[in-house]
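Troubleshooting log. The previous structure file for this entry was overwritten by mistake, so regenerating from the original sequence record. Sequence copied from the archived sheet and checked twice against the printout by T.R.
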Amino acid sequence: MKKLLIAALVAVISQLGFTGLAQAQLTSTPSGGNKKASVTEMIGITDVTINYSRPHVNKRDGHIWGELVYNGYADLGFGTSKAAPWRAGANENTTIEFSTDVKIEGQPLAAGRYGFFIAYGADESTLIFSKNATSWGSFFYNPAEDALRVKVKPVPAANSEEWLKYEFTGQAATSAVVQLQWEKMIIPFKIDVDLPATQLAIFRKELRTDKGFSWQSWEQAAAFCVQNKTNLEEGLLWADTATSANFGGNQVFQAWKTKASILEALGRGAEATATIKKALPYANMNELYFYGKSLIAEKKGEEALEVFKLDYQKHPDDFLTNTGMARGYMAVGDNKKALPYALKAQKQVTGKINKDTIDKMVATLQAAK
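Regenerated output below.
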């Protein structure tokens, strides 16, 4: 048996050939002592991922920018490019990927994965996003494959960064700044996303999948429209679906409340009022309480009081409904009627935060009295 196994192994080796075996490589650290790295951040709902290798200064201080990282373009003596930009890292070329369309320094760039190169200049550097994201380094760089070029100004760094790194800074709801940091230099560029447009596109896509078989998904999409004051007519169609019997939202307060909010935003106040009246019987104690509070915030005290009264009738003498009645009467300036409810809520309260709130309310009402 042993002889047969050895013979079989020899036959396999013979078929593969020694050339094929010589190409096999064991796992080891990246060449040159560089480190592989990846950084990802979500901007809005857009995933931005940068894959790169990290060279280190390695006692070459003062000889990185303009020397090791050459100015502009160079003939690297290998590959097809005679004017190659820097690979923006080490080893394989750096890549950057966007899950949705973005803007780089105000210029549009489609979703996708790009090779990232830099033509360095001390006063102005050119960032290059190439459609070729699979080549090794920039040896085969071809300007015909450029998807976008933008110019940015390098910024001196206060402290030296031994290992090159990419970092997201200046984060905002719809933007962030990516910084390439190495030695005493920073090369920044800003990424902006159109959150409403990308979010609506995702909603339209996902509502056609199994995620669209629940009222919650349609209500979520509709609520986004009214919260961001965008695509209200489309949002109303989504709210209509959320409140239909097809997906179970026809007796759900939240779904109807969102529809009413869209109608209000569209200037259809009478329809909004009728819709919310239809929705109130479906609301639970918490929903009525917080809806009443929202009306107070909108300076609609009389309407808020009616909601708190309905909540109290459905759930009599609970901490939350007593608190609601107190708030409702305070909203219409009737502190005398508010105080007994606040005192009852004070006896029922649990938890420090709620207790502090009720104690403050009672003290305010007693002072007013």
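The CA atoms of residues 34 and 55 lie 5 Å apart. Archived copy saved in two places this time.
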